[in-house]
Write a structure and sequence with these properties.
Length: about 280
Amino acid sequence: MTERRNWRRAIATGLRGLLVGLVVVIMGLPLYWVATGALKTNQEIYTFPPVWIPRQPQWGNFVEAWQAVPFGRFFVNSIVTTLGAVALELLFALLSAYALVFVRARGKGLVFAVVIAALLVPGTVTLLPNYLTVGRLGWINTYQGLIIPVAAVAFGVFLFRQHFLTLPRDLLDAARLDGCGHLGLLRHVVLPLSQPVIVTFLVIYLVAHWNDFLWPLVVTNRLEWRTVPVGVAYLYQVEGVQNWGPILAGTVMALVPMLLVYVVAQRWIVKGIGGGALKG
C-alpha cells in the first residue's frame, strides 16, 4: 500500500510539473519571440522554420526605434501620467474604503452597492462623456486630461474594504483606547497592516495605466503628448509593415519597465493575495 501511494504521489507530482511547464511555455513563448525578434534581421524574422536564436544580434534595432520616434518624450509622458493616476487612485481608494469600514454613518451599504455597480460599467461607456468634459475644460493635450478622468477607484475601494474587514479588531480597539483618531488609526495601524495589499494594488494599476492605449490616443492629438503604447503604434506607421526589427525593439522597451515592477513586487503580491485581500 505504501509503495502504491508513493507511486501515485510521484505521478501526481510529475503531472503537476508537466502542467506548470506547459503553462510557462505557453505564456513565456510570446515574450521570448518578441525579445529575440528585436535582435533579428528582417530575413531571420521571416524565415521558416523559425530562427529561435539570432545569429548576429542587431542591437541597432533599439537605436533605430529610439531615433525614429521621440521615445524619450513618450516615456516621460507615461511615467508622469501613470504615477499621477495611481497616486490619486491610491489616496481616494484608501480613504473611501476606510470610511466604509471604520466610520459610523448611515447609508454605507448603499454607497458600497454603488461602488460594486461601478465595477460593472465598461470603460468604453464613459469614454465619450469624459472626452466631452475634458474638451470643455480645455484639457486636450495636457497631463490633467490624461490623468484625472482615468483616476477611478471602484476596484480599489472594493479591494481595500474587503481587506480592512479582515484586520484584527482587538488591535484596532486598543489603538482607539490609546487615543488614536481616524487619521492616526489609518496611519499607524491600518496602513502598516495593509502593505502587501497596497503593493498589489499599485502593481495592478501601474500595469493598467502604463499599458493604457485608448484614452491617451483619444485625448491627445499632438505627438509630444503621446504615451508609450501609442508611441509604439506610431512607430509601426513610421517603419511600415516590412521593418519588424525596430518595431519589436520598441515593444521590448515598452515592456521592460513593467516587467521590472512585477519582479520587484512579486513577493508582496503573493502576500497580498494569500493574506486574505479578497476575502469577504
